[in-house]
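Posting here for the record, re: FE-MO-S cluster.
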Amino acid sequence: MKTEMSREDIIVEEGPVVVSQEAEKASNSSGVSEKSPVLQKDLLLEKYPTKVARKRDRHVVVNRLHPDGTVPEIVANERTAPGIITQRGCTYAGCKGVVIGPTRNILQITHGPIGCSFYSWLTRRNQTRPKSPDEPNFLPYCFTTNMEEKDIVFGGEKKLRAAVREAYEIFHPPAIALLATCPVGLIGDDIHAVARDMSEELGITVFAMSCEGYKGVSQSAGHHIANNALFVHVVGKDQQGVEGKFKINLLGEYNIGGDAFEIERLFEEAGLTLISTFSGNSTIEGMRNSPAADLNLVMCHRSLNYMAEMMEKKYGIPWIKVNFIGAHATAKSLRHIAAYFADAELSERIEHLIASEMELVKAVVNEIRPRLEGKKVALFVGGSRAHHYQELFKELGMEVIAAGYEFAHRDDYEGRRVLPSIQVDADSRNIENLEVVPDPALYRPRKSEEDLARLRSNGIEVNDYRGMMSDMAEGSLVIDDISHYELERIIELAQPDLICAGIKEKYVVQKHGIPMKQLHNYDYGGPYAGFTGAINFYREIDRLVNGSVWRLIPAPWERQPELHGAYVYG
Ligand code: CFM
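Prediction output follows.
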């Protein structure tokens, strides 16, 4: 039996490491070279011990289309190899921080030690804007039971009940959500029983989520848990009619840096009625009424695809994949909405809107693009932005040499067509998959099968998503759950002009003299969505790439002799 892995086992591509001048010149107008340079995959993995290299090998793919036009297979949503420094977060982070967190009038109590709640408090820069000063907004507050040792020993349910009562007495919220952290599951506190009792006692919606950090391999499990909880306890709990001719929900948009405000402005000018966003700038009332919509728009497929699918099954609301990151992507998404509603006036308004917004966009692109054309960028972000932001770089003529998600699933990389072939492992099985059937009273198909087929034949992804890889250049590298070591290797091997990732990578990248843009919280910037957002982004990238001070400052190890060490055996 072969015990040692040979170098050949992990060699997939031979090729130049650094973009040659010729390759740069060969860049076409979209900024993506016809034949992109290949970052050598084997060089990325060569230092790993055999077992780790074998494991990581399946998460790193050179993007080369098969002859039938399909993309290669990648392994995703699997446990991170022990010992590797990952960028991933925990299940609680995905549930509380991501999906439930941005809703301003659901008072959220974290049942756990102080740190979990404190570090998930507003660090994501999800903004909200109450419509009046009297409207409740609990986002500026950090609620927690502050579990301590005695609670771990004797149980924390009593403390949780007391916290719910206290929060209710002070704030009188319309709803309270209880969120579990790791110790809750370990000691067996029944937070769902507490939620039921408290809901009865207080007469408001109280619901709990068993989103212990360890529940899944990443924050992705927390998204699913939050989707389920909102679907069961919130969505459809109010059936008041909502006025509006073109009623929509926006799924998977979280108003980071004010993105949702910009998207809402466009909807308003187009004459679309947004009932609820899940969950940027949202309220529980909007979510309760969301089944009144006739179309769901899915922005972040990873975090909210469950809701889109469940609403389609229960209420008959189709969903389309949209992307409001990038001026062209925004225009395309708006046009798809117009095509869905098939209304001449709406189309006209949308065309008018696009034409007027695009004027300024074009002027800024013309000014900035020559300074950025051909520059190389690598981006590693969560579960959807690594795809969405490629649009903006294309508009600037920049070349994406490598991209990857931290915790997305194969469908986010390869498209939903691979869903039937994804093997459900024990970790995924850990998260409940709700059985959803059409609601006998409320199910109403919004479109006939023929209409849906017509939309699809016009290139509109109804109830579908094609994934990131098919939009990436041939030969670019796709890396799932990248490790810090691999990121440093990419810097060493390809010297990108810009890296986009998060706070965990930021300073490491800058110390290499490479500018770094956070695409999670946008550093201090934003909005980057819509047309105005695109302009903000172009200018920011221009400043970063062409004005980087980091290149001028030698790192400490470049100024002094570097210390080297080795382990001493025996
Ligand atoms: Fe969706 Fe997000 Fe993202 Fe995400 Fe996130 Fe985020 Fe993200 Mo950070 S919901 S998958 S869990 S688009 S917090 S707003 S930036 S990793 S790419």
